[in-house]
Structures are given as structure tokens and as C-alpha cells.
Amino acid sequence: MDADFKPEVLENSWFAERYRALPAVASEQLRLASIHYADSSRAETHLVMARMMAPHNPAVKVAEYRFYFYQARLQEALRVAEQCMAMTALELGFPLSWRLVSPQHGQFESDEPAHRFYLFCLKAYAYLLMRLQRLQAGREAAEKLMQLDPANKVGGQLLLDVLDRADREAEDD
Fold first, then answer.
1. What's the domain of life for this entry (predicted)?
2. Rounded CA gap, 150 and 121, in Å?
């Protein structure tokens, strides 16, 4: 592989391919949601319309996730992260439950974009569980992430480090 190769180039092309597959009306709804971000009700209406037009498109799901995350609507962001994992699992032929996915199901060690997207979705899911104080569930998701990505390419070890530090501090109290 070329020494100048950057995995994000593949990710961007994979994602760009899905964005180009969006119907023009869904793309316009995403644009309007972005323009009206400060008016969360209006922005969300545009996101809902985009979802109705392209319910399984990662570009719509990522837009929804970002909206809910930055609006601090973490439970809704968690739901979208779950949907992203399920959608990607279907595309890749994985079990729908992240708990059943194993390293043998895919090319997680590679820089294959769909697999990396799945890992990033799992990382987002684990992080949100932690933010929602569902620490044991967050730990389980982060441990699964590390099982699938032992080289820590997507940074899942940091989540476990935070949980371990919190456990140590709780023991010290």
C-alpha cells in the first residue's frame, strides 16, 4: 500500500458515494436542516423529511446523529447510532445485534470503509451509553469494539480507559 495512503480518503469516497445516491429532494432537506439548525424544531422537520425520502442512507443517518448529539438529545442520538449499526450490518451481512458480531464477520483490521463506519458507529454507541450513565452497557460495547478493533484504529481504548479511571476513583471514595 502507498506510504501516503490515508484511510479517510476511502471513508470519504464511501460516504460520498452514498451521499450522491441521495434523491435530490432528500439532499435539499439536509441542506435546509443545516441552514435552520438554530431553529431546532424547523431543522428537525427537515431531517424527518430527509429520512422519509431516504430512510436507509448513511448521509441522512449521520445528519440525524449529529443533530441530536449537538442538541444534547443523547437518547435520540443513541437510537440513530443503533440504526446506523443495523443498517451497516445488513449491508455487510453481519448479525443485526452488535453483541453477536465477531472478528470473523468482517475485515475489521483493514481500512475497508464500510467496516470502519460500523466500528465508528459502535464507538459512538458506547460513548453515548457512557454519557447516559449506562456504564456497564457502555463498557460491554467498548469491549466489543476492542475485540473487533484490537489495533485500536478507531480509538475505542480511550473509552475503556475513562471507565477504568472512573472505577478507580469510585473505589478511592
1. Bacteria
2. 16
Query: How far is residue 38's CA from residue 51's CA, in Å, rounded to a whole number?
Result: 20
> pTM for the full model?
0.88
DSSP string, 8-76: HHHHHHHHHHHHHTS-HHHHHHHHHHHHTTTSHHHHHHHHHHHHHH-TT-HHHHHHHHHHHHHTT-HHH
pLDDT along the chain (173 residues), means of 10: 44 75 92 95 97 93 95 97 96 96 92 90 98 97 98 96 90 76
Are 81 and 128 a contacting pair, CB within 8 Å? yes
Q: What angle do CA 13, 14, 19 make, to 5 degrees?
A: 90
| Cβ-based burial of 64 (10 A; exposed 0-12, middle 13-18, buried ≥19) | buried
Q: Which residue reads 457512557 in cell numbers? A: 130
